[in-house]
Amino acid sequence: MDTKLTVSLSPHIHSRNSIDHCMWNVIIALIPALVVAVWTFGLQALLVIGISVAACLLTEGLIDRFLFHRHLSLSNGSAIITGILLAFNLPSILPWWMVVIGAVVAIGIGKMSFGGLGCNIWNPALVGRVFLLISFPAAMTTWPVDVPSGIGHITGATGTDANTGATLLASLNDYSYGKIGLDNVDFMDMAIGHMNGSLGEVGSVAILIGLAYLLITKVITWHIPVSMIASAALFSWAFGGNPVLDIFAGGLLLGAVFMATDYVTSPMTRQGQIIYGFMIGFITIVIRRYGSYPEGVSFAILLMNSFTPIINRYCHPRLFGRRKTSAVKA
Amino acid sequence: MGVISTSIIVLGIIGALAAIVLYFVAKKFHVYENPKIAEIEELLPGANCGGCGFAGCQAFAKACAETDSLDGFNCTGAGKDIMDKISVIVGLEAKAGVRRVAVMRCNGGCGERQIVNNYDGVTSCAMEGALYQGETDCNYGCLGRGDCVASCMFDALHIDPKSGIAVVDYEKCVGCGKCVKTCPRGLLELVEDIPDKPLVWVACMNHDKGPLAMKECTVSCIGCGKCKRVCTHEAVEVTDFLAHINPEACVGCGECEAACPRHSIVHHGNLIPEKKEAES
Amino acid sequence: MKLKTFRKGGIHPDPNKLTSGIPMIKADVSSEIRLELAESIGVPARCIVKPGQTVSAGEMVAEAAAFVSAPVHSPVAGTVKRIEKLRDISGFWREAVIIATEIIETAVDEAEEALSPRTQEEVDALTPKEIIDIVGNAGVVGLGGATFPTRVKLSIPEGKKAEIVILNGAECEPYLTCDEVLMCGWPEYIVAGCRLIMKAVGVEKAVIGIEANKPQAIAAFRRYLKGSDDISVVKLRMKYPQGGEKQLIEAITGRQVPEGALPVDVGAVVDNVATAYAVYDAVYNRRPLTQRIVTVTGPELKKPGNYLVKLGTSIRTIIEAAGGLPENTGKVIAGGPMMGKAMANLDAPTTKAVSGILVLPRSISQRHEEEPCIRCAKCVSVCPMGLEPYQMMNLSIAKRFEEITSLHVMSCLECGCCSYVCPSHRPLLDYIRYAKREIRNLPKK
Fold this sequence. Notes:
The structure holds 3 protein chains of 3 kinds. Chain A contains 14 helices and 1 strand, in the order E-H-H-H-H-H-H-H-H-H-H-H-H-H-H. By secondary structure, chain A is mainly alpha-helical. In chain A, 53% of the residues are buried. Helix content of chain B is 35%, strand content 12%. Chain B has 11 helices and 9 strands. In chain B, the strands form 4 sheets. Chain B has a two-stranded antiparallel ribbon. In chain B, strands 3-4 form a two-stranded antiparallel ribbon. In chain B, strands 6-9 form a two-stranded antiparallel sheet. In chain B, strand 3 (157-159) and strand 4 form a beta hairpin. Chain C has helices spanning 104-113, 120-125, 128-137, 150-154, 178-185, 187-201, 215-225, 245-253, 273-284, 315-321, 362-365, 378-382, 389-397, 401-406, 417-421, 428-441; strands at residues 24-26, 32-36, 46-47, 54-55, 60-63, 72-73, 78-87, 93-101, 164-169, 205-211, 231-236, 268-272, 291-297, 305-310, 329-334, 341-342, 356-361. In chain C, the strands form 4 sheets. Chain C has a 6-stranded mixed sheet with strand order 1-14-13-17-15-16, with helices on both faces. In chain C, strand 10 (205-211), helix 7 (215-225) and strand 11 (231-236) form a beta-alpha-beta unit. Chain C folds into 4 domains: 29-113, CATH 2.40.50; 120-284, 3-Layer(aba) Sandwich (Rossmann fold), CATH 3.40.50.11540; 291-365, Ubiquitin-like (UB roll); 378-441, no CATH class. Helix content of chain C is 31%, strand content 20%. Chain B binds chain C through residues 116-117, 120-122, 124, 126-127, 130-134, 137, 139, 208, and chain C through 87, 90-93, 342, 344-345, 366-367, 427, 430-431, 433-434, 437-438.
């Protein structure tokens, strides 16, 4: 026997799918939204994204190297995604050191404190974002003044601080939820991202392009985004709001496509994913309608992230040859 | 001022009420437990190895506290000193249990057994053993994936980096028998380590016929029966081309080791005196 | 037209049918035939020959030792040299009969001449029971790889009724083409075998399921079956594991076999096309199962092809005939790449289970490094049985076997879809198999 045979259990072939493959596809899907962000907010946006990504990579690298003593896993791109998504949730004029704090919290607390990739309970980027939102509420809701809010020609818009820009959604909430219709908004601006807001949430069309890419490459399935958007639309209508504005004006699309679909923190089964998406949509609208924050997507996703283990426990796929779903008695 | 005093009063009342409720609940649901159980448990190693034959250390402690005689009670993990202390607590005489150790019945490291294929899969003897014969031609030998190492709670088993097979650290081994149950090839055997009687065992489990066994490993037992012939105490049996030494009949003279042409019999010095010396 | 397939899960591996369309080659008869006695699932056969005894081609050398057991026949005329243990492809010791082939050329001719085929009238006169007995005595087993004795499958349990016979020509495993060659070359014999199976189980209807990537086979059957309405051919959409018994039944009849039940509970009897051919051979030609088509293939192999191999021929001999092992061989697999067994020992004899010999280079066969689970749920969505492989693997690592049982781990058909798609290269199926084994060994309550 000149060559030693290798013996292992079947299957002996593997699909070309890998973590790197999934993650880099998500990064590619994020590029259209990134371009829109730079186009709308200028190079400032690129700076925020750059700082955020660099800080995330550095934090993950240092923790891997000095706390876990394991080989670096930076090349799989998950830290880059967290960095981009965190930046996408920040205003373009946030001071750089706040961005760094957000990134350190996102990776350090949101991800690595649970053991790294695959172990975290909450979406790391949103942990970083919510941390910043609670710690620096003023800075986190200060938007660049030179970007149109998308709602400029509503009478009485002077109510907002003249020195501060405002997001479309915040403006909407200022003037009692649901009173503003499509007539007041330049829909075209909203679609192409020519409005104020966090970096990544403004370009609705760009995000939808990303969604299409993710669906085509089979990185994600339609269940979470569709159920989440549908339920948001439903409850927006039920609570007397305008479904179109609720979907396109804030971070709902960004959340539905890139944040809620995060592998690690979303449920495993199809029906679990639909329940999860549906509840995120519902909670988002409740927060927007009744909460003190104009935006509720981040909180809604984080809340449902916490419920993911419970959903996984009770939602099982239908067993072949069985009529009804059988839940594990535990 | 009013606010502070109100707060103190309110919190105080709540605290007092809670304390009263808790007191009565604790009284109501109190379970009497023999205080000796806790005392004994304190002494035990807490590894729940099961070497004593009970489900765990607590079960053993409970059994000790409730028994009429300590006959047959022996914490293999902690040794005689602990049993003496337990006997003081329960007021019964403890008999010294026989110390048992696990011995490894394979000596075929990578120098002795040629590796003929590569296993590519989960590092687990159970899985590799279920899949196929193993990396060498021997169907019986140590797979070296360390299932026994993982099962040992006393750090007494290691995979020798040089030979690639499991090696027992006799000083640390308490003879709980966990590894015996774990090894998918049944290579570990519990033997009694009686003072002043050296241990002798056949470090091979190969049942193949002589010529095959010879090909498979340079230290395999080929069932030639030389050991049986030299043994004056009728302690050696050869069944299915494999010798086995009956520890009860064996006196530890080591004649068989000298006679074995395959060097598959291990003759080990006595363990307990060594240990005592090391401690003192 | 929407092609039929099963609903749940499934994957689309590259078909890699390198040997598709290559006609069958008869492999040389080797001078030594080594027959394993444990040729089928169940109890190994009991040897009935002695060393030194001469055997003729097709003579039984070992009889069925139990109900679930199949006899073994000598493929050649020769002398029994020894009865001893030898290593199977996994290196485990198995009882075997070793036969020295008399004179190689005449042995083959003799084997052909020894047959005195039954005429159509004789076959028509056979009762179902007689057909089942002939099939049983000929040592026919499921040739898809599971080697379940066909006699047992054809004996419908009391109180159950078969409604349809399904012939499995899906051949969803990548690389393998042995069934395709058989279907393209001998559709009439397969159909004849199918009619015998139908008679044996007492049904009027049969369906041959073939995946869409074998148009020639479909055309061959359609041509031959023109005008007959008892057997139809169904073109199936390509999807692995279509050839799984339960998946095929669902694809064709739309019925799902309940958990823990047998196919006959939904009225189906499934047999591989090669098995149907073997049934034909046994009944018409009185030839027991002593040879099978083996796909010898691999991206680096010099002469890949479909070889007609006498059972008991050493695997190494067959590989030599196909051009020898390439330099960079990593694995040699008995069967397909998804469910086949990696071989540890090439000197083992060919058995009825070996549908293919796949020689994979290191670059393909090597496992990737295991990474943490990112809970992408791909394993859940591809599982054709609706199981949760990720969860079963975690519980298996933690040795919590009781909990895995409640996740229906025993339904797993070990198709390997979960391990195939996992982006973290986790050995999901390894752990599931481990759990299944441990659960089988658990004391019954």
